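[[Per-residue structure]]
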Amino acid sequence: MRPIFMSKQRNISFLPSRLPKSLLTARIMPHILPSSSQASRYLSSLMLFSLLFLSLPGFTHSSLHDPKQLDPKQLDPKQLDPKQLCPRALTMAHSGDYAPYQHTDNEGHLIGLDVELALLITARMGCDLKVIMLPPKRAQKMLSEGKIDLMAAASITPERQQYAHFSPPYRGETSVMFIRRADVTELAHLSLTDMLQRGLRFTTGLGGWYGQEWQDAKHLLKEQQLALTNSTHGQIRMLLMERADIAIVDRYVGFYHARNLGYSGHISEHPQVLSDDPAHFMISKASMTQGQVEAFNLAVQWLVETEVYKETLKKYLSQ
């Protein structure tokens, strides 16, 4: 389910240092400095990321305009002119309340999985990244007007295609059924239909889309078998407190809230996946050149094949 963005007067910028040959790190603007643990995490990820690509062959900036010559494995920022590709920092909207994809830490800094992945992608290009918190309607309007460049966690629609390019998928938004770990032996072999027919109690979010299988099976629900809530945090609490037997939640969001509640080892993901939809970056047609769009898309394609990408996702799924 797509987040409702919250508006705050806060932004943060990430500037990839263009060090010669041996190192690529992030320099975080001093006027909004994250905690040392957050900065260390970003720096460590980017240092590992740089080691993975420094030995790859590059291509010239002119090849960005010939799709036949493009190869994501050949994208090497050392061969690009940053002043030509990114004369200014790229700006990305941030929801602020869609943990763990886009949220704030205790000090109000804008963090999350989407921020980390966007930082790695733009660093791959040799570009700077500025992240600002915006409500969704305003963010989409600003993207269409070229006042911001990027929005994460986007689905492709014909309306949005009028003003935005879409990147290749950079992660999934996967709806799964969480169960208590103590119930795995009893429930893991059962299908969604089996569990509904047995009268097990479900909890989902209000107004969310959880896949066609769930939509088709909902008629099997009996009275008081489904609890609806606006809070994913509340759904996980209901599961842990045994007020529900199955919580239908986005995979990363569920593990995030269980970990924050101190019970990450107490829930498990049921083997049956209800939906798995791709998430894209929206890229402003008004502000981004064709060369920037192609370079961004190549960086996305390259990133999802790397070990640093797998490790970053794994970190957010840690139990």
Remarks:
- The first strand starts at residue 11 and ends at 16.
- The chain has two domains: 11-163+285-317, 173-276.
- Residues 9 and 133 are 7 Å apart (CA to CA).
